[in-house]
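Protein in question reproduced for absentees:

***
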Amino acid sequence: MFKANEEVKDMRGTEDGLHLEFSGDDPFLFSDEDLRPEVTAIWERSGNGPWPAVLAVLIALMVFFGLYFRSQGPVAALRGSTTELVLAGLFVVLIALPLLSGFLPIQPQLPNTEKRPLAERPLLRLHSLFDFGDKYNKYFGDHFGFRKSLFRLNALFHAYVLHDSPMPDNLVFGKDGYLFLIRPGVVDQYRGRRVFTDQELHWIAERLEKRRKWLAERGTSYYLMFPPYKASIYPDKLPDAIHRVDDHNGLDQLIDFLREHTAIPIIDPREDLRKGREVRDVYFKTDIHWNPWGGFIGYRCLMDRMLRDHPELGSPCLQEDYVVEPDTNDQGDLALQMALNDHFTRITYMMVPRNDLRAKPLPEEDLPGSAFFKYRPVFMKGPDQQAPRLLMFRDSFAVYLIPYLSEHFSRSVYVWSPVFIPDIVEKEQPDIVVQEMLEVFIRDLLEDKVRDDI
């Protein structure tokens, strides 16, 4: 069932078990088959049947009746009071409704809008009994009855009565209907505080410059692109509680240092995006991402810089090549998180080409380092097979770059990975490598180390 990655030098079965020899720092085994049935069967064989649950019920009944027949105590007081019995019965029914909803169709079916995997139900086994409580608590917190309905009611109350965020650790309400991402360290970046120490900046610059030289030895150009926060383009829409202490923020700190200590071309589209918002919004109000119009501006910034070194890429796409068609939808990721995407909609300024795009998708291929991929890579074939080849390490902001960029390359590969993977470079042999990274992730550069030499 299992296959090994390229850093497992040898793998074979012996009388003593499995023999493995490694040739790198990150060996792993993987399987394309669903192992859930086999794993579940093993858990079932290793368990104790229904006896732990039966034992727990018996103990609970013994404790209850022991308290009930005592002459003193809160449970014994129920024996002589009809009112207390009725209230206690109603309380038991209400507290049991979330449990009953697991067996009876008594709750409304609402879509799951949380962009995360929900906890799975743990199995009750004596050999893992001490871990069961924590695991079940997480499972129950994600699945208890009427959870989605109560979550939505709470969100509506916060949004329309209290006028604040129901999820203050995830998002914050700005001005004029703008929603902004909140996560550890982000508010400091909004305010303009330093993100890196001098030592960290030296470490990043040294490693990225080694990477640029390593690529240059292979005839490959290297470009770094940093799409900004929405707050960097719309600081006037931030809530008044977030005060900027310095206009020179963490991204400025990083870009200035890299430009001074490396020869890496840096693409910083902030100024062009600020100009672009004078025409129409460049970011979604209820989403962290730029919209197709903002993506087009980012593409032009990247293309203009690459054309200085590679005029063979041809003329960039022009604004006149597209018709802008506004589309109102309920797909804003920040609005989805609080289950109010039908109340806080977003406008997508679709960039519809006047002529059909010439680049076409290619079938998915195997690439090394797939353990680092967040989603499957995208492969595109351009109209000119004599044009350069592109490899981009990217995040979600490249979604709106791919249609534009693919028109200029014979082959373009877009890998959704937070780290640079040299093995893919050696396999693809691209003419240009672009590493695109959202401003929120710039501290991930401290962990961008697959190999010591680059």
The mean pLDDT is 89. Residues 336 and 449 are 33 Å apart (CA to CA). The longest strand covers residues 322-329.
